[in-house]
Amino acid sequence: MSDLCRRLQNVQEAGVYRLNCPLADLRESAAECGFAMFEADIAAASGKGEVLAELARAIAAPDWFGHNWDALADTLGDLSWRPAPGYVLLLHGESSGEPRLDNVLDATVSFWELQHKAFWVFFA
Q1: Of 110, 112, 109, 107, whose CA–CA distance to 121 is shortest?
Q2: pLDDT tens-digit profile of 21-80?
Q3: What's the number of CA atoms in the CB half-sphere (13 Å) around residue 81?
Q4: Nearest alpha carbon to residue 37 among 87, 84, 77
Q5: What is the mean pLDDT of the chain?
Q6: Burial of 117 (0-12, 13-18, 19+ CB in 10 A)
Q7: Percent of the chain with pLDDT over 70
């Protein structure tokens, strides 16, 4: 098992970070751990609607997704359509400038920690 896979499995370390390893290493380690990995390109998104649409696409959100911050929080806290021992959300681009996104991501990490599953968010 790779060192990165072992680290990804550490629920207490999971959080929101800037990616500081090669993207290929992250993809390989997430796969090695059996984690579900989602990738969203929010670099070109302008405003809440486009950010939410891109995130919904990336996670293959169900039809009930309401395209608002509460719906995003609910969806990221469910993921029943993508069961996995842990999750990695890779966001291409800088933070969208949407402060609510940061709140949702932090809350999602905390929620999954209570479920004893790692939920990692990386900005690349």
Answers
A1: 109
A2: 999 999 999 999 999 999 999 988 888 999 999 999 999 999 989 999 999 999 999 999
A3: 9
A4: 87
A5: 94
A6: middle
A7: 98
Domain count, the chain: 1
Question: CATH number, domain at 64?
Answer: 3.40.50
Q: Residue 59: how many CA atoms within 13 Å on its side-chain side? A: 29
Domain of residue 10: give its range: 3-123
The span from the CA of 76 to the CA of 104, in Å, is 9
Which two tokens mark 12? 């207490």
What is the 3-state secondary structure of 98-116? CHHHHHHHHHHHHHHHHCC
Q: Which of 1-5, 8-12, 66-70 has the lowest mean pLDDT?
A: 1-5
